[in-house]
Design brief:
With 203 residues, this protein is of the alpha+beta class. The protein contains 5 helices and 9 strands; from the N terminus they run βααβββαβαββββα. A hairpin with a 2-residue loop joins β2 and β3. α1 packs antiparallel against α2. The longest helix has 15 residues. The termini are far apart. 31% of the residues are buried.
């Protein structure tokens, strides 16, 4: 019988988790990837939520990771409504499309709710995240600052009614966008991999 464990990341996990994240995202959205560098930088950011920095192990083997940060919806009246966002969420390539990502996501969402998060906002595919309760955010009155009509900007209420009557704008937390030059320098510390331009990439 397989043993699946979800636990907090420790400092001893950092390098292995960064490598896992790199493998999971390599050549997916762009030639190479930036996600492992985003993770590396965010661990020391004020918005980072250590309690929701989680790894998944299967029979002692590291196969997944997710991190959360605090963020906010800026309501039209100027008030800030605290929410959270997550990502990158990574599953090792050999274990993808087997349900592990959904298990990790659901457990992390349960823990976020227990910590008092009323809603989660992310950019992603509604085809995947819709199964976990996410909807297109603009249908809840929340606009994405970089693309107000975006269908890929999603939100999920963890507390029912948390977004009732809300009209506002969400902006990605500082740190989610990193320079290509800094990411390139960080990536040079890992085993070289070929960057490929593939169909379906966003950048």
């Amino acid at each position: 019988m397989q043993t699946l464990i979800i636990r907090n990341e420790t400092e001893n996990d950092f390098r292995a988790v960064e490598n896992l994240t790199r493998e999971a995202f390599w050549n997916v959205y762009r030639p190479g990837c930036l996600e492992h560098f985003v993770l590396h930088e965010f661990r020391n950011a004020p918005a980072f939520v250590p309690e929701l920095d989680l790894v998944m192990e299967l029979d002692g083997v590291l196969i997944g990771h997710v991190m959360y940060v605090r963020s906010a919806i800026r309501k039209d009246n100027g008030e800030a409504l605290p929410v959270m966002t997550f990502g990158p969420i990574s599953i090792a390539p050999a274990y993808q499309r087997q349900g592990f990502g959904s298990i990790l996501l659901q457990e992390s969402m349960r823990r976020a709710k227990a910590m008092g998060a009323g809603a989660l906002a992310i950019t992603g595919n509604i085809g995947f995240y819709g199964k976990s309760g996410f909807v297109v955010a603009k249908t809840k009155g929340v606009r994405y600052a970089d693309d107000p009509d975006a269908d890929y900007f999603l939100i999920a209420e963890l507390t029912p009614g948390f977004l009732d009557g809300i009209s506002g704008t969400y902006k990605d937390p500082d740190g989610y966008f990193v320079s290509d030059e800094a990411a390139e320098a960080f990536d040079a510390k890992f085993t070289p991999k070929e960057k490929l331009k593939l169909p379906g990439q966003l950048f």
